[in-house]
Structures are given as C-alpha cells and as structure tokens.
C-alpha cells in the first residue's frame, strides 16, 4: 500500500509538471511539431493535468479516481510510446514514455485490486 501511494504521488506530480509544460513551454511546442502532432499539444497537456490530479486526489480520498487517472495516463503514454517508435526516436529518448506506460498500468492494476 505504501509503495502504491509513493508511486502514485510520483506519477501524479510528474504529470502535473509535464501537463503544465505542454501548455506553457515553447520547448513542448517544438517537440510536438517534431512528433508530427502539434494539434494534440493542448489536449495532451490537459489530459496529463487531469490524470495527475485524479491520481493525487485519489490517493487521499477516492481510489476510484486514482484508478481512472492511472488507466487514462497509461493509455496516453502508450500512444506516446507508439509515436516515439513511429518517428524512430532512440531508446533513450523513448524510455520515459515506456516507463510511464508501465508505471501507470501498474498503478491502475493496484487501484483496481483495491476497488
């Protein structure tokens, strides 16, 4: 249970950071142009913020929220992993997407068991 909480706080915090980065960072505009999907920048950032908040709120109040947030973020990062493979990014460049896909899938499973 403690591991699930710690990993949830880590993931939720990271996604809040990256979500706001998508919305306000010029670097992320350049990255999404490189990915070939600049039209999804605002949607991606918003989903990251919502997912991060859902995980964090769910840790203290409602595990169902953490389950929904982690499931959504694992799917979002799976799509991000596919984009990274499609544009032929190196393994090192793609690793965060792969890791966050697995991490959030683990969290979703952990919260599913608690429901």
Question: How would you characterize this protein structure?
Answer:
By secondary structure, the protein is mainly alpha-helical. It has one domain. It is built from 5 helices and no strands. Helix 1 packs antiparallel against helix 3 and helix 3 (41-60) packs antiparallel against helix 4. The longest helix is centred in the middle third of the chain and has 24 residues, at 63-86. It is globular and about 40 Å long. The model has no long low-confidence stretch (mean pLDDT 97).
Summarize the structure.
The protein is mainly α. The chain has five helices and no strands.
Helix content: over 70%
Give the terminus-to-terminus CA distance: 13 Å
Number of strands: 0
> What class would the helix/strand composition place it in?
mainly alpha
Radius of gyration, whole Å: 14 Å
Largest sheet: none
The helix-strand sequence is: HHHHH
Strand content: under 5%
Number of domains: 1
Morphology: globular
pLDDT under 50 segments (min length 5)?
none
What is the average per-residue confidence, as pLDDT, rounded to a whole number? 97
């Amino acid at each position: 249970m403690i591991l699930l909480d710690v990993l949830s706080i880590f993931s939720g915090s990271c996604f809040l950071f990256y979500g706001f980065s998508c919305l306000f960072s010029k670097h992320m505009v350049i990255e999404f142009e490189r990915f070939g999907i600049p039209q999804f920048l605002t949607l991606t950032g918003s989903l990251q913020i919502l997912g991060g908040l859902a995980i964090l709120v769910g840790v203290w109040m409602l595990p169902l929220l953490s389950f929904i947030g982690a499931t959504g973020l694992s799917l979002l990062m799976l799509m991000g992993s596919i984009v990274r493979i499609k544009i032929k990014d190196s393994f090192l460049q793609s690793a965060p997407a792969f890791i966050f896909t697995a991490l959030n899938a683990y969290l979703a499973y952990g919260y599913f068991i608690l429901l």
